[in-house]
Amino acid sequence: MRLSALVCAAAAAALVLPAAASAQDRPFTYQDMLNVNRLSDPQVSPDGDQVVYGLRTTPLSGGSSSLYILDLDGESEPRRLAISDDGASTARWSADGQLFFLSNRSGSSQVWRTDEAGEVAVQVTDLPVDVQTYQLSPAADRIAVAAAVFPDCPDLACTAARLDEEPDNSGTLYTQLFVRHWDQWTDGTRNHVFVMDLSGQGVADGEPVWATRDFDGDTPSRPFGDESAFTFTPDGNGIVFASREAGTSEPWSTDFDIYLQPIEAEGLGERVNLTDSNPAWDAGPVFSPDGRTMAYRAMSRPGFEADQWQIMLRDMDTGQVRQIAANWDRSPDSLQWSANGNSLYATAYDTGQVKLFEIDVISGSVIPITGEGHVAAVEQTPSGFILAMDSLTSPVALYRKTFRGREMPIRITDHNPQLDDLAFGEPEQFTFQGWNDETVHGYVIKPANYVEGGTYPVAFLIHGGPQGSFGNSWSYRWNPSTYTGAGYAVVMIDFHGSVGYGQAFTDAISGHWGDRPLEDLQKGWEHALDTYEFLDGGRACALGASYGGYMINWIAGNWPDAFQCMVNHDGVFDTRFMGYSTEELWFTEWENRGSPWERGTTYEEFNPVNHVQNWRTPMMVIQGGRDYRVPTDQSIAAFTALQRRGIESQFLYFPDENHWVLQPRNSLRWHTEVFGWLDRHIGEGAE
After folding, report:
1. pTM value?
2. Which pLDDT score, from 0 to 100, does residue 74 have?
């Protein structure tokens, strides 16, 4: 099926940094950022002629989410699908070219499909519970859906009835962890997968088969799992899913396995654990075009969520498993097979970029396909790829790229023309010798409308994770261009522990939260001040969230005179209590070399609470009330310490936000307060 589209010339541009802005251009601001139209989730049709994607428009003024479609003929412009009027998301093509999507138009989240014009919506599922996500079988004759259900219920109707019950008291009794996870209190439900046949009219037919019945775990996993956690077998007679058996060790276990569940005419066949021999994380099963090989990713160290992903191939006939690209010192994201089955495609962090790579399944050789920028999503066409890409100075747009590695991606969408005449700061990547005399990378970004010979106050941004990166990518939470647009220069250091520089570099932070990264930050700051004369080291503010917020607390006591102000968002204040109050215990136990009551750990060695007597720098503390990763008491304790010591301080609290500030109006308040704090201490309002 081909969804018809209007024909008009589409703007095309290579993914390059913008030319230096003229002095008359208005700088990009955080208000501009909040009104950026946000593109996501591209899906190319089976014939490669069209791509459908989601677009969230003008979020700050309320906005809406819609599905758009674009003919890939090089002459058309995107058009909004009419089915978006009543809500539509998560569009997926079936092998025969039908377009399915999720919608709440019936009163709950269900699967729907549309006609050739994208105007008529036909309901596919009508379940008594919400559909979270879904997968279509290779022959488009079955659909697998994920839903949150009570495991002890015999059917979906039981779950729906229980959810509608109004208890006569508010008490909840817990007998094991998790009590809460990310931003939700545990309610007794688990995510499970159900399979239904599709009739000739493309509508779910018959009773759903509970494919993961009696499995004690979530599929997809909570809180961030998606449909990549499960897929149909090539013949459509079973599903393969990646999940972790909960038991009593769920909060400190990373033992996710991949299971094969046959679905036979008379019911479920015997479930087989395909990765039982690996006690660490296994994820992302994808089948080769001929159906004979399953590729997946595997970690090797139990309990370590930032271990390197290795690429594994399993022969589905013999059960033989082999690793490929074993010498590639990068950690690939989700895998895709090439159409001929000779290669796999994967994205991976690489020295401040997120690139697309091709991996030969025979030789294991790895070739980069893209260069600068951040590849957020990959879809294949007969001639190459459709890529969702962004950078430090450009939000996500779609690009066309041929299979030839030397050709630059060409932009094929432009949903943010309002940014074309705005001034962005010019980024530059640099290196220096950090801890252990090893090479460390960072970025410096000039203020928008930079004038040669001027000096500028500095926002020193520290990333979270800690196994993360502040590289060449766009962000709606920590966007360097909002600072450069306000007249600040920006310095960001990918300290030891960051990703994209080899696994040994990432491993270096575990058990060393307070020494090796701090040394990198100190040396990187010194290098930047020595190298870039436009940086005013006497007017600088350090800002960070999560681990970055921890580092703000650590700097306050161990490098107290480096900055004129600080901003700590959801940062760890007491590492020992963090080990008792966070939810994913595998993280704190790996990073601190054990549980908080054990000897030989590093909870106290790098605990900011032990250095409060040295605090003297003004600090703004920010916290989300639904953050159960770094709970609220951590920020209240930091603010209490500041107030009790008589240090200038503020506490900004969002009761309805989690570890991140996601609601547009709350984000506006966040930026208004933070930029007011910076202006007061290092900007034009500073005394």
Report:
1. 0.95
2. 86
Check residue 606 and report its DSSP letter: T
Q: What is the DSSP letter of 234?
A: T
Q: 555 near 518, Cβ under 8 Å? A: yes
DSSP state of 227: G
402-453 per-position pLDDT tens digit? 987 778 999 999 999 999 999 999 999 999 999 999 999 999 999 999 999 9
How many residues would you count in the chain?
687
299/309 Cα distance (integer angstroms)? 5
Per-residue pLDDT reduced to its tens digit, 540-564: 999 999 999 999 999 999 999 999 9
DSSP letter for each residue of 616-670: -S-EEEEEETT--SS-HHHHHHHHHHHHHTT--EEEEEETT--SS--SHHHHHHH
Distance of CA 168 to the CA centre of its chain: 39
What residues are paired with 505 via a beta bridge? none
Euclidean distance between CA atoms 189 and 186, whole angstroms:
8
On the question of pLDDT at 266 being above 90, the answer is no
Please state, as a whole number, how many other Cβ atoms lie within 10 Å of the Cβ of residue 23.
Answer: 9
Q: Where are the beta strands (DSSP E) in 513-570?
A: 535-545, 565-569
Taking only the tens place, the pLDDT of each residue in 571-612 is: 999 999 999 999 999 999 999 999 999 999 999 999 999 999
Runs of H (alpha helix) within 90-245: 156-164
516-531 and 547-558 helices, crossing angle to 10°: 80
Q: Output the six-digit token pair for 618.
A: 């003004």
**CA distances to 125, 227, 287, 291, 361 from 296, in Å:** 30, 14, 9, 14, 12
Phi, psi dihedral angles at 143 (to 5 degrees): -135, 135
Comparing CA positions, the residue from 407, 381, 385, 411 lying closest to residue 396 is: 411
- Measure the CA angle with vertex 603, ends 601 and 606; round to 5°: 115
> Is residue 23 predicted with pLDDT exceeding 90?
no
Question: Mapping DSSP to helix (H, G, I), strand (E, B) and coil, where does residue 195 land?
Answer: strand
Helices (H), 364-511: 480-485, 503-507
Give the integer Cα–Cα distance in Å for 3 and 50: 8
CA dist 34 and 416 (Å) reads 12
Q: Rounded CA gap, 687 and 677, in Å?
A: 13
> With 90 as the cut, is the pLDDT of residue 623 above it?
yes
d(CA 612, CA 554): 9
Distance CA 271, CA 263 (A): 10
Residue 78 to residues 7, 62, 99, 407, Cα–Cα distance (Å): 9, 22, 16, 24
Q: Is the peptide bond before 220 cis (omega within 30 degrees of 0)?
A: yes
Number of other CB atoms surrounding residue 401 within 10 Å: 23
Give the residue-averaged pLDDT of 216-228: 97
Q: Which residues contact 469 (CB under 8 A, 6 or more apart)?
A: 349, 352, 463, 494, 498, 499, 500
For the record, the structure tokens of 88 come out as: 């539509």
Which of 686, 680, 682 is closest to 488 using CA atoms? 682
| Long-range contact pairs involving 279-283 (C-beta distance under 8 Å, separation at least 24) | 279/255, 280/254, 280/255, 280/304, 280/307, 281/254, 281/255, 281/256, 281/305, 281/307, 282/242, 282/256, 282/257, 282/258, 282/312, 283/228, 283/229, 283/242, 283/256, 283/258, 283/309
Can you tell me the distance from the alpha carbon of 113 to that of 90, in angstroms, rounded to the nearest whole number?
11
DSSP-derived letter for residue 570 is S
DSSP secondary structure string for all residues of 108-131: S-EEEEE-TTS--EEE----SS--
Indicate which residues carry an active-site annotation: 546, 627, 659
